[in-house]
Amino acid sequence: MKGLSHLDDSNRFHLLVDAVHDSAVYMLDLDGRVESWNAGAQKMKGYTSNQIIGRHFSVFFPKEDQDAGKPDALLAKALQEGSYQDEGWRVRCDGSTFWAAVVIRPILSSDGTPIGFAKISRDLTEQRRQQQALAAAERALHQERDRLEVTLLSIADGVICTDARGFVTRMNPAAEKMTGWSREEAIGHPVEDVFDLCLEETRTPVRNPVRDCLLTGRSSFLREGISLRVRNGSARDVQDSAAPIHAHDGSVTGAVLVFQDVTPMRSIQREIAFSVSHDALTLLPNRRQFETALDDALKRTLSTGMRHTVCFLDLDRFKVVNDTAGHTAGDVLLKSVATLLTRLVRISDVVARLGGDEFAIILEGCTPSQAEPTLRKIMDAVSALGFVWDDRSFPVSASLGVAEMNEKSDIATVMKQADVACYAAKTAGRNHMSVYHPDNGEVYDRHHQLQVASEIRDAIHANRFTLFAQPIVSTRGDNTPRYELLLRMKGRGGEMIAPGSFIPAAERYDLMADLDRWVLTQVLEYQGAKLATIPRIQLSLNLSANSLNDAKFLPFFLDLLRRSPIPPSALTFEITETSLINNLITASAVIEQVRATGCKVALDDFGIGMSSFSYLRSFRVDFIKIEGSFVRNIQHSPVDMTIVRSINNIAHEVGAKTIAEFVEDDEILKHITYLGVDFAQGYAVGHPEPIETLLPPI
């Protein structure tokens, strides 16, 4: 056998191609040992010619390939087939690996006898990585497309795609169901044909958001109060968004419209809005809505000079009906009166129920003297109502208080005037009407309030106030003793006077801060030692707007707290919305400093005001007390149930616990427990009792 040494230099030059640097070109003898080595081989594999010549080329293979005999198998295959190409992992001198494309050809002598092998290798590591990345991207793209297709078919939102002209190109099953169009019918139609929008109230056509999206290249959204006309003629409340589809050059090639059927949600919103502004029993506007109507009427008065008549109406002997025939009979009577009042006034007038047996009327564009015939008809109609229950007849009549709204009026004053006049009518005898006159009503009102304010000052001086404690009970089995401390005033004869009889006067004549200080002094100083002996006791105290806005209150409270045996963690201060509304910034600062001592804060009567939720952004609270008017009818009113559930969920979201007020019976307790409300307060779990019943003897 002739060796490679018999080849002349010219042949060697052509075989080695030593000038090639991007490929490894080298020769092997018939046993596979390296006999030549070019610069490209050294660059690719890391061996110098001194290191590699004479060594078997199997050193370029991973160990598992060596063990499997792959190097010799490749040479054998090259001899058998005349040439062999292969790709695979190879090993460099430093142990690193690369992906190589290899060509092996036998070298034959002049007589055709194999004398060795020529081997060319190229490093394809980067190309392989790119190919793998491209293949992975293609797989991911297919998988993503499949997922999007499945998502599009399964989501509840309607999806409609259009081309750049606004013609439908595809839609999902949810869109088919909501529009009444099948996919096959819709494709090729203008989007307005398929997604037909109109105003909810007037059914006037509305511009489709896809058109704005295609025109501007930006996302577009529907405003509130828009309905989708379904192909069968019905309508759905919808909300939607349209987003442009951009080509790689930024041009708009179409749009995607995503929309939801919000009919149930809008229905609940309308019911909630109605319940907030209307009386649940009679469906008449409530006090809040009546005050809004008064404000609107006052604006018309100021702009046009038109005068209006405001009337308060109290039913006479209504308590007799309630006590004798029961609350169900009373409710029927109230609804009958509401229907009668609505029938006897004009459509432009307003009839409202303020609460209990109190109604209010605004007679538009007339003075009290002009309104008198209508009001007399109302009195006569109520008297003629002839209410009968269980074969028993109950005489019914009404007392009316009338006031005029003119350019000098304000809402609070005109309501007070009508109230004073109504009180005068009831005082004069049943079935009377009294028109407010400044000379009488104002003097009476002011005199009465001054008397009450004087009585409050005397009661503070004579220590004729006392504290009652009403339990606040956990619905989750927590037996920590919790109480709200309630203020009562003792009359000169020793009788207990409820807060409703003296708090209004205290608020009017700025006595609330004095009452707050009396309560705090009693709790933290005089009764503090006994209260502190009750294990884990938690006490809730009410804090008025006067105290929150009094610069001297905080130092007074902090000094009391520092000297008191009651720890700050045992105290919770209840703040009402009315306490915050006039000076939120000052009140918030005081609340934060109170919390900094370790005391807790509760937001009282939550939900009764339109601004309730906004206060949650102004300061942190530990408890939210759900307004009792939403709680007391929870077992009969789905709307009240929804409101209580919503307030409870929001409170928990912001980290506050909830307390339901007016839990008057076991049914209400069951409902609030089911909704997850944390605590209950009301007659079902405990009546207010003198604080002395809590105090252990020392």
UniProtKB/TrEMBL annotation:
Which Gene3D superfamilies does the protein's record reference?
Answer: 3.30.70.270, EAL domain, PAS domain
* Example GO biological process: regulation of DNA-templated transcription
Give the matching SUPFAM superfamilies. Answer: EAL domain-like, Nucleotide cyclase, PYP-like sensor domain (PAS domain)
Q: Using the record's annotation, list all stretches that form the GGDEF domain.
A: 306-438
Alphabetized GO MF terms: catalytic activity
Checking InterPro entries in the record gives:
Biofilm_reg_signaling (IPR052155), EAL_dom (IPR001633), EAL_sf (IPR035919), GGDEF_dom (IPR000160), Nucleotide_cyclase (IPR029787), PAC (IPR001610), PAS (IPR000014), PAS-assoc_C (IPR000700)
Q: Where is the EAL domain?
A: 449-698
Positions of the PAC domain: 84-136, 221-274
The chain positions of domain PAS read 9-82, 144-217
Q: Which domain of life is it from?
A: Bacteria
Q: Which Pfam families match?
A: EAL, GGDEF, PAS, PAS_9
The protein's name in its UniProt record: PAS domain S-box/diguanylate cyclase (GGDEF) domain-containing protein
